[in-house]
Amino acid sequence: MNAPNKIAHLLIIIVFAASLLSGCGESSDTSSPPIENTEQNTVTPDTGEPSDTEITTADSRIASIKSYLIEESHQADVMITALPRELNEKAAALTEQMKENLELHSEWYMKTLGELKSGEPFPYDKRLGVSEDDYQFILNLNDHMSLIKESDTTVEIKYNRSSIEILNSASPILKKMNLALDANILTTELGELTYSNEISASDEQQVTGRWNGHTWTLQEEMAQSYSISIGQLEESKKTIIYIKLLDVGQPAREEVLVF
């Protein structure tokens, strides 16, 4: 790889690893609403019948899900994870300045890059063309991400005998989901997602703010993975539905609905 291409490669790493300009791309992982698994792996004797603890846990889960998904038509905000406009403009300007300076100091850059250990961040140097504070800002952009409204949509929640149907006809990702409450399986156009974990409100959920909920996932031969989280924002008490689709070699796709 020649010097100009390596310079461009470094900038791509900086931009996308920190979710520089567009935010959602799961990002993060940190750009995505943080999820905490609060369940512990326990082994109980298999008697063929659910234990009292399992029944209580299932009842609690179903009750919480029903409190998030009220049966009616909801006007929902379609959100994206991104930098606020002023920070986005600042990041773009700093990145352009760094690009110009790296091109001017390509020999130094190549030497420094070659000396780095695996996973070691590129050290600050004035030859980057930005201040040390601005460089740290670039490296820690995920800390500044937030949910920003992109558009409106309508989400229909319908209760059936033993399931809840979630409809969003305008969605480019998933238009219909059906949650079987007893089986705890979420059926979508992509397939059946099984229950993964409970989400507990945490101060680490910086992008969304604190929230509680549940996650269902589907993994297909390590090439694709889908996750859907449904919960409630702690402060506003609004429902949040977070959908994330990962295909190897493709940009992540996600949709965040708040209502």
Based on helices, strands and strand pairing, what is the structural class? alpha+beta
User: What is the CA–CA distance across the termini?
Assistant: 48 Å
User: Domains counted in the coordinates: how many?
Assistant: 2
Order of helices and strands: HHEHHHEEEEEEEEE
Average pLDDT, rounded to a whole number, is 82
- The beta-strand count equals 10
The CATH architecture category of the largest domain equals Beta Barrel
Q: Helical amount among residues, as a percent range? A: 25-40%
CATH topology of the largest domain: Lipocalin
Largest sheet: 10 strands, antiparallel, barrel
Number of helices: 5
Low-confidence stretches: 1-47
Rg, nearest Å: 22 Å
CATH class of the largest domain: Mainly Beta
* Outline: elongated
Strand composition percent: 25-35%
> How are the strands of the largest sheet arranged?
1-2-3-4-5-6-7-8-9-10
Keywords: Signal
Biased composition (Polar residues): 26-45
Protein name: Lipoprotein
Signal peptide: 1-27
Give an account of the 3D structure.
This is Lipoprotein. Residues 1-27 form the signal peptide. Residues 26-54 are annotated as: Disordered. There is one protein chain. The chain is of the alpha+beta class. The protein folds into two domains: 3-26 and 84-144, no CATH class; 52-82 and 146-258, Lipocalin (Beta Barrel), CATH 2.40.128. It has five helices and ten strands, in the order ααβαααβββββββββ. It has a ten-stranded antiparallel beta barrel with strand order 1-2-3-4-5-6-7-8-9-10. A hairpin with a 2-residue loop joins β5 (185-188) and β6. The model is unreliable at 1-47 (pLDDT under 50).
